[in-house]
Amino acid sequence: MKRVLSRILIISGVMLGCSVISVSHAQGTAAKPDAAKGETLYTNGDAARGIIACASCHGPGGNSTLPINPNLAGQAHEYIARQLHDFKPQGDKPPKRHGPDGAASPMTPMAQPLTDEDIQNIAYYLGQQPLNQETAATASNEDTMQRGQQIWRGGIPDRRVPACAGCHSPNGAGVPGEFPRLSGQFPSYIEAQLKLFRSNDRANEIMHDIADRMSDSDIAAVADYAAGLR
């Protein structure tokens, strides 16, 4: 267990370093993100450039009402920006994020026409929007609540699965710029993402290693528990 945790800490440090370099580079070559421009693109899109309004799927201010489309309100803007980049092909390389069984993600054509500046502006706008607590998802499966709590707080030691709270924080708020907020997110969306990590359709070495050691029932339990955290 100590070796696994050490590996995770080392990889996390490398990832954090890369993120800082990436953000610093972006700040050095571009103006500070513009939340007003981000709001305009998010709400209205830009038909002339083939940009569809994000609000049509993710709801006003990033508060989605459809579980298939995640809540984005209040998510750290660095994290949102990185995910939008991951949906786009990188030169000759395919996107880092795919749908199940390697299918193209519906987000790829949405992100394709966005410039780096567009991405920063949209992400910055969303990072300033509050999560609507009245419509945010909550835990709903009492039968799996205890199992979900055990995994969140203590992991699954015999399968070398670390506690989710170690990276995503005890209350599910995440770590800005690195690990996403999961509290209030739709359980079905969290579950789907864990399975994509497990299959490597969503490329992430740390999360693949973790999800690969989890059963479907473990994933469903912790996804439901995470949604109810506040």
Question: What would your notes on this structure say?
Answer:
The protein has 230 residues and is mainly α. It folds into 2 domains: 30-127, Orthogonal Bundle (Cytochrome Bc1 Complex, Chain D, domain 2); 137-227, Cytochrome Bc1 Complex, Chain D, domain 2, CATH 1.10.760.10. The chain is 50% helix and 0% strand. The chain has 11 helices and no strands. The protein has helices at residues 2-29, 35-44, 55-58, 77-87, 107-111, 116-127, 145-154, 165-168, 187-199, 205-211, 216-227. α2 (35-44) crosses α6, α9 packs across α10 (205-211) and α9 crosses α11. The two termini are 28 Å apart. Mean pLDDT is 90; it is low at 1-28.
Name some characteristics of this structure.
single chain, 230 residues, mainly alpha, Cytochrome Bc1 Complex, Chain D, domain 2, 2 domains, 11 helices
The CATH superfamily of the largest domain is known as Cytochrome c-like domain
Provide the number of structural domains.
Answer: 2
Uncertain stretches: 1-28
Compute the separation of the termini in Å. 28 Å
Class from secondary-structure proportions: mainly alpha
Please tell me the CATH architecture of the largest domain by its name. Orthogonal Bundle
Strand-and-helix sequence, N→C? HHHHHHHHHHH
Radius of gyration: 17 Å
What is the residue-averaged pLDDT? 90
Give the SSE map.
Elements: H1 2-29, H2 35-44, H3 55-58, H4 77-87, H5 107-111, H6 116-127, H7 145-154, H8 165-168, H9 187-199, H10 205-211, H11 216-227
Helix pairs in contact: 2-6, 4-6, 7-11, 9-10, 9-11
Short characterization:
The chain folds into 2 domains: about 30-125, Orthogonal Bundle (Cytochrome Bc1 Complex, Chain D, domain 2), CATH 1.10.760.10; about 135-225, Cytochrome c-like domain (Cytochrome Bc1 Complex, Chain D, domain 2). The longest helix has 28 residues, at about 1-30. About 50% of the residues lie in helices and about 0% in strands.
